[in-house]
Amino acid sequence: RTTIIRLTSNGNESAYLGEVDRLKSWCNNNNMALKSYFFPIG
Fold first, then answer.
1. Coil, helix or strand for 39?
2. Distance in angstroms (rounded) separating the CA atoms of residues 26 and 7
3. pTM score of the predicted model
4. Residue partners of 14: CB distance under 8 A and separation at least 6
5. What are 4-23's pLDDT values in tens digits?
C-alpha cells in the first residue's frame, strides 16, 4: 500500500497533484488499481 498525504502551501497544490499523477502513471504501467479516499481533517 502507498499513502500520499495532501500538504499544500498557500493554496498551491502543484507538488501534491504531481505526485498523484506520477502514482497514477506507475499504477497504469504496472497493471495496478488506484483507489482514492478523502478524509477531512478538523
1. coil
2. 21
3. 0.65
4. none
5. 777 777 888 888 888 888 98
